[in-house]
Amino acid sequence: MLAHLLRRLGQSALVLLAVSLVSFMVFRHIGDPTVSLLGDDASLEERQALTRSLGFDQPVPVQYLRYLGHALQGDLGISYRLKRPVLEVIAERLPATLELALVAAVLAVVGGVALGVYTAIRREGLVSRAVMAVSLVGVSLPTFLVGIGLIYLFAVELRWLPSFGRGETVALGAWNTGFLTASGWASLLLPAFTLGFYKLTLIMRLVRAEMLEVLRADYIRFARARGLPERRIHYGHALRNTLIPVVTITGLQIGSLIAFAIVTETVFQWPGVGLLFITSIQGVDVPVIAAYLLMIAVLYVCINLLVDVVYLLVDPRLRKRA
C-alpha cells in the first residue's frame, strides 16, 4: 500500500512539474509586464530596469528555474492589475469559492447518492420516473442557463433570494465566511444549486445504473434466499459494491466544481477566484492567470490522491494488490 502511494506521489510531482512549465510559458509569452506595471508613458531606462529586476533578461531555462523556485516558496508574482502579491489576492477570494464549492459538493454527493439509490430500488414508482425526467434537464442544460432561470424565478419573480453577490460575511481571522449570517446563506443557495445541479444528476444516474447492475448479481439473489432483510441487502451489500466507480466519478466531479465555478461565479457575480480569473483574462493579468492554473492543478492532484486512498478503504482487494 505504501509503495502504491509513493508511486502516485511521484506521478503527481511530474504532473505538477508539467503544469508549472505551462503556466511559466503563459507567464513568459503573454503580455508585456513592463507596460502593465509601468504604463505606456514609462521611459526605456525604466522598462529595462524593471526587466532586469524581474529576471526577464536571463536565458529561458534560468527564468523557469527561478519561477519554479519562487512558486515553491509561495511567491507567485505581483498582479499587474492590482499591483499586489498574487498569493494575497487569491487568498482573499479563495474562501468564497471554497464555501460555494463545499455546499455544491455536499448537495451533489448526498443528493446524488440518495436519489440514485431510491430510483434504483423504486424504479417503477411515479416519484422515480419524475426524478429521472428532471435529471435529463440537469444533464442537458448548460450551467449558465440554469443559473439565469433560477435568478428569474427566485430573484425576479418571487423575490425570495438575492440575484448576485455574497451577502454579509463575518471575519474569522484571515477567513471571511458567509456561513454565519442569514444573508450569506440566502446569497449562497442559488449559485450553490446552480453549480451542483449538473453534478447531482450525473452522480444520481451513475449510482442508479451501478445499483441496478449489482442488484441483478448472483450474490444478491443468494442473500435474498437466505432471508436477509431488504434494507441490509440494499445498503450493506449492493450500495457498498456500487461505490468503486462512483468514487472515481465523484472525485473528479468535485474537483471540477472549483475549476469550473467560473461560469457560476460570473452569472451570480460571486466574488471568488473564478470571477477573479475572468477579470484577469480581460485585463491580461498574466501572473494571476498562471497562478490560477497552478492552483487548479494542485487541487486535481490532491483529489486524485484522496480518491486512491478511498479506493483502498472501500475495496480490500486493492490493498492486497497495492
Architecture overview:
- A two-stranded antiparallel ribbon has the order 1-2.
- The chain is built from 14 helices and two strands.
- It has 322 residues and is mostly helical.
- It has two domains: 2-72, no CATH class; 86-282, MetI-like (MetI-like fold, Orthogonal Bundle), CATH 1.10.3720.10.
- Helix 5 (86-121) packs antiparallel against helix 6.
- Helix content is 77%, strand content 2%.
Key features of this structure:
322 residues; mainly alpha; MetI-like fold; two-stranded antiparallel ribbon; 2 strands
In a nutshell, what does this entry contain?
The chain has 322 residues and is mainly alpha-helical.
Give the arrangement of secondary structure elements.
Layout: H1 2-29, H2 33-38, H3 44-54, H4 60-72, H5 86-121, H6 126-140, H7 143-157, E1 170-172, E2 175-177, H8 182-215, H9 218-225, H10 230-259, H11 261-267, H12 273-282, H13 286-314, H14 316-321
Antiparallel strand pairs: 1-2
Helix pairs in contact: 1-13, 5-6, 5-8, 5-10, 6-8, 7-8, 8-10, 8-11, 10-13, 11-12, 12-13
Q: What is the CATH T-level topology of the largest domain?
A: MetI-like fold
Note the overall shape.
globular
Report the average pLDDT across residues: 82
The CATH level-2 architecture of the largest domain is identified as Orthogonal Bundle
Helix content: over 70%
How many strands appear in the DSSP assignment?
A: 2
Beta-strand content estimate: under 5%
Distance from N terminus to C terminus (CA atoms, Å) equals 5 Å
- By CATH's scheme, which homologous superfamily of the largest domain applies? MetI-like
Helical run tally: 14
